[in-house]
Specification:
The structure is a single chain. This protein has 429 residues and is α/β, with parallel strands linked by helices. Helix content is 31%, strand content 15%.
């Protein structure tokens, strides 16, 4: 079995050799500069240093675009690389697998230290331009094949069974453009009225095995359970007025999703982080799987709230919109209904990110919770000015009262979506 069969086409012509012979062959890799392990260590050090140029220089040409994204994954948090040790796991000529141990210690806004564990991760390295370069994380199948090659007795070649293709995203026709335009996002309703084409997405979601009672969150510190809807899994901490007792049914329906520590939400997360495999939990995620993909695979939600309000160096409305589209595309490809949110702050000026978010919601015809509009009646429009004194940029965090209002409009949106699906006949009451 060739555990390098998933490498780029230019590497598939490498002769098949047994792992034992490769490990004994001191001259494997020929005259290439450096070593596979050193290339991976250099790349990891560049990421933790938020050094985009160094990350790209340490990457193979096929990985440069991803390296540019991953170099921003730790922007805005204090980081330290500890106990890093990478070693060669397997090599086949100019391609190799490298395993690493160690931790990335990081903290956000002076909070408690957190760790991203490197143990259990296996990286790919290739010779590119005469030098060993890091070329991404190996897949679980590559790692398994490498381990099997090291221990297996000679056997007849097995015929692999192709993995089932992901369900195709349903085709849809956008709602006729009587809708308010993205430039008029301030007037959009707080609670969105979903378009009926989402019933097709939901039906496909159920057919592929997603759980109708699960929702996920992809977000930053303002979307962790303590700040966003986690209270609805703690009955003694919330109540509804008489005319809204119906919301108890929605709370009961989605119980277990509200206060769950999801795999695509964390304090200090930014958009690059959820597309960076290094930020994924190695105990629950497959090697090479990023936090967003891992969350959707393991929790199998039918809905996902997507909101990245955290300010970091290099964030623009343009790259925010690019990442947002990438997240929406991934969710829809897996028949998960994306729910977007505007934000209360205007750190970037001109509310450019809110308009970009509205543009994505409009073009994909997906729900947008207009949290900005809901925050306007609150003191200081929901912004925690005391907490943000002395911070740059200021006026980003929201108050505890704002947490409650934002959680409430999130719940109301789930209720509206669920009731719409019942009305459309694709969900039972």
């Amino acid at each position: 079995m060739n555990f390098f069969k998933h490498f780029p086409p230019s590497l598939t012509s490498i002769p098949k050799l047994t792992l034992l012979a490769l490990l004994l062959a001191a001259c494997s890799g020929g005259g290439a500069v450096g070593s596979p392990a050193a290339a991976v260590e250099t790349y990891l050090q560049a990421l933790v240093s938020v050094d985009e140029v160094a990350a790209i220089n340490a990457s193979c040409s096929a990985w440069e675009a991803q390296a540019r994204l991953e170099a921003a994954a730790y922007q805005g948090v204090q980081t330290q690389l500890e106990n890093l040790d990478c070693s060669l796991l397997a090599q086949d000529g100019e391609a190799a697998l490298v395993s690493c141990t160690g931790q990335v210690r990081y903290s956000y806004a002076g909070g408690e230290d957190q760790l991203d564990e490197l143990g259990g991760r296996v990286f790919s390295a290739v010779v590119d331009g005469g030098e060993w370069k890091m070329c991404g994380l190996a897949s679980n199948s590559q790692v398994a094949e490498a381990q099997a090659t090291a221990t297996a007795q000679p056997a007849e070649a097995a015929t692999s069974t192709p993995e089932p293709a992901a369900a195709a995203a349903p085709q849809h026709t956008a709602t006729p453009d009587t809708r308010p335009l993205p430039a008029d996002w301030r007037s959009w309703p707080i609670i969105p009225q979903p378009s009926q084409w989402l019933g097709q997405v939901y039906a496909a979601s159920l057919a592929q095995g997603n759980n109708p009672q699960h929702f996920s969150v992809a977000g930053d510190c303002q979307n962790i359970p303590e700040a966003f809807m986690g209270v609805y899994d703690i009955p003694e901490r919330f109540s509804f007025p008489t005319n809204e007792q119906y919301l108890l049914e929605t709370v009961s329906y989605f119980t277990g999703s509200f206060n769950r520590d999801g795999l695509a939400v964390d304090g200090g997360y930014n958009f690059p982080a959820i597309f960076t495999p290094l930020r994924a939990d190695p105990a629950q995620c497959e090697n090479g799987e990023d936090p967003l993909a891992c969350e959707i695979r393991t929790w199998q939600p039918s809905f996902i709230f997507i909101s990245m309000e955290f300010v970091y160096e290099g964030r623009t409305a343009e790259n925010y919109e690019h990442y947002l589209r990438q997240a929406v595309d991934y969710a829809l490809q897996h028949n998960v209904i994306p729910i977007l949110l505007t934000k209360a702050d205007n750190v970037e000026g001109g509310h450019a990110i809110n308009e970009a978010t509205a543009r994505v919601a409009y073009e994909y015809d997906i729900p947008l919770v207009n949290w900005w509009r809901a925050a306007q009646p609150l003191p200081d429009h929901g912004l925690d000015l005391d907490r943000d004194k002395g911070l740059q940029p200021p006026n980003f965090h929201i108050t505890y009262e704002a947490w409650s209002v934002r959680s409430y409009v999130g719940l109301k949106t789930l209720d509206t979506l669920h009731q719409s699906l019942v009305d459309w006949g694709v969900e039972t009451p």
